[in-house]
TrEMBL record:
Stretches that traverse the bilayer: none
Entries under PROSITE patterns matching the protein: RT_POL
Single GO MF annotation: methyltransferase activity
UniProt source species: Takifugu flavidus (sansaifugu)
Entry protein name: Reverse transcriptase domain-containing protein
Leader sequence segment: none
Superkingdom of origin: Eukaryota
Domain Reverse transcriptase: 1-207
Amino acid sequence: MDSLQFEYRPGIGVDDAVIYLLHRSLSHLESTGSTVTVMFFDFSSAFNTIQPSLLRGQMEGAGVDCHLAAWTTDYLTNRLQYVRLRDCESDVVVCSTGAPQGTVLSPFLFTLCTSDFSHNSDSCHLQKFSNDTTIVGRVSEGNEFEYREVITNFVTWCELNHLRINTSKTKEVVIDFGRKASHTAPVNIQGLDIEIVEEYKYLGVHLKNKLDWTHNTDALYKKGQSCLHLLSRLRSFGVCRSLLWTFYDCGGISDLLRCGLLELWKLREGKEETQQTGQTGWLSPGLLSGLH
């Protein structure tokens, strides 16, 4: 496993990946006249590009038992897929690429697929968190040869391994604390100049080119206020304290809370559904049982 892969390692997680990126960036900036360039890569349908034919060798190379590697590649090969909507069914398609969506297996297998490529030197490194790949380089006196060479090698490696880079969502951030901002020519990947942005959301953290945490703090504050507002609205509808704690402890519950508030409001006010359905507002069975 790549030493700079921060997922699926005991005692290491998202915070470690963000802290390591910031530590290396700040260490580079201690050198006089240095700037830091960070390339955040985005893959197109990352988990759908896993190649079982290449995966088996990578799994065995990582120490996975040969029988388990064979079973995994057999599971991913010749999968029958179709779409069914009520009584209608699409044609059956035989799929031998990618991994089923929504499973824990998909990001883990993608991690193994990308373990072959790594780079870590004093002035440039590549770090990963599953399919989130980042290259951080130090630019001294305008010399960014190693940084751009690592990017070129990584793009070439992705093409050889059938990984598709989404160049429109891949972004670059230039961190420069100098009085006069240095001009940086955009990196060209697959014929497209990568956009240089002032801010990028990396693993849920808003990183700015001046490493100013104001925007990230504001985002966290607004998220907290939104959650508290929804909880206060639920309380006004008479939801019990234990259920409020359940909503508070659950992450990513905002959409469910909004839907719940909407349905509670329609139920209390006697509002009707949209004209397309023509039905009065009812609580969905799942939410209703949960509230009870």
